[in-house]
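task queued by scheduler; priority normal; single chain, no ligands, no partner chains; default sampling; output format set to structure tokens
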Amino acid sequence: MDKLTRYKKANEEVPKKCLAWRIYGKGMENFGDNKKPTEIPVNEPGNDELLVRNDAVGLCFSDTKIIKLGEDHPRLRGRDIKKEPVIPGHEVALTVIKAGKNRKQYKPGSRYIVQADVYYKGVGIAYGYLLPGGLSQYGIIGKEILDGDEGSYLLPIKNENTSYSEVALVEPWACVIASYRIKHRRGIKNQGKMLILEGQASKNYRWEKLFSNNKPEKLVLSRVKSQMQKSIEESLKNSNTEIIKVEDDDIASLCNRYTDGAGFDDIIIIGDVEDEIIVSSGRNLAPYGILNYMCNSESKQVVEIDAGKIHYDRILFIGSLGDDPSTPYESNPEYSLRGNSILLLGAGGPMGQMHIQLALDNKPLPELVVVTDISNERLQTVKQKFSRVADQKGINLQLLNPAEFSNPDDYHKKISELNNGKEYDYVICLAAIPPVIEEASMFLGDKAVLNIFAGVSKGTIVKLNIKDVATKSVRYIGSSGSTIEDMQITLKKVEAGELNTNNSVAGVCGFKDVWNGMEAVRTGSFPGKIVVYPHIENLPLTSIKELKKKYPKIAAQLGDNDAWTKEAEEELLREFLSDRWA
């Protein structure tokens, strides 16, 4: 029986100690002990716990954010990480080794992945942040994960033919797939806090349909004239809605007074208003809040919008030139990847390549996919990975480096020319840079979607033409992370052979060289994902391209376009697994 077979059977003598990578403070100098892993005890599982072996871990840019911010990271809530260091790593494939007496449903040898956004008794305690993550050779999975608020956060691997790397990378892929599964309300929030502000109203507005199903708990009317007030009150005459009439148009003050600072669930602005009203309304929306701009002119109105609130709070901007405020809620409500022309800005990195792969696999197929990045090396990787697939499917795949244009106007003109002067059906922005997000909005066609995928922090201000949401029904969306359902959908695709997550792999790494792997993620020096194999200790960080020269036996098992495969992983494990399995 060879090492790999013994390893897969997971019938092993567990060591008393194992290696782990820990974060002790801010900066790469505080990751590990002098750039080395630490030896920690391997504990026996308690009655309600599991002892697991971590088989593969994808390194994520989010891990580098923990290293950069240390205990200032919002998910660590001021924890003293010098005394309680963090073990990162949330993109993990693991195997159960021992189960406590109350966890016998988890069989030794069974494989799982982890939904990292763990909530236990109403508190978020993410795996790889407050809970120890996958960058240790062995770990304990406890009640927080097994008895979480949504049930168990372990997802079982049903198809044993899937590789460790394939399922470890379900987590980042689920984040990408989740960004196309965003849903918003198709009406006002029932029993929510609502504000209606009248600007330069130019017509008689119809309110019956807006309030036909849902009713606000509290409705604040700001600057609303008597005729409109009467019409609104008539539409709510059989409800218990508290209606408050004010002349104050200081949205922040109204938010504090009537929502205790939590934000309005719906803000409807009737008629054109000053920029400041739009800006303040956007800032004072509650999470999942909707700003409905019923403007009466098509004139351009560029205002400041917090892209971070779109990304993390899922706020939405809608609008119309019509007279029925309910209409925008139903207009363009689906944000799935679609259309004949797709534009991806800053998409040469690992996550961008996932979006590209989905675009080329989309049904119906797009006619044109344009990818931009400021790195020619990354664009070359995109070309190598995807140009043949695009050609086979009859998709026009175009790659652009904005740095190679003498001025932005020429670059923008080229993007437009590629689509025969037309605007695009779907635009994805993977750069957390305000000018790039603003640039992305320039190419939105009728009912187009701008997917702000990059992790823009709250307070990231971008200037967008707010009238586009009314005149063209464009939508600005964003998301962070994934749900259990997103991961289940993604895992099901992987196990069915419908999604090859291994296409994302750009390098592999043994456990003792994780410091260099994390530094490569931090600097973006690898054009794809780096996968760590914790029980291979001495393999230096190696790019897929280097395998042919350094490890030709492994390279011989690579797939089309030198893609990482299950067979290559198995050859790697046979060659480099620790001698404990010899």
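post-processing summary
- The chain is about 30% helix and 25% strand.
- The chain has three domains: 3-179+485-581, 193-330, 341-457+474-478.
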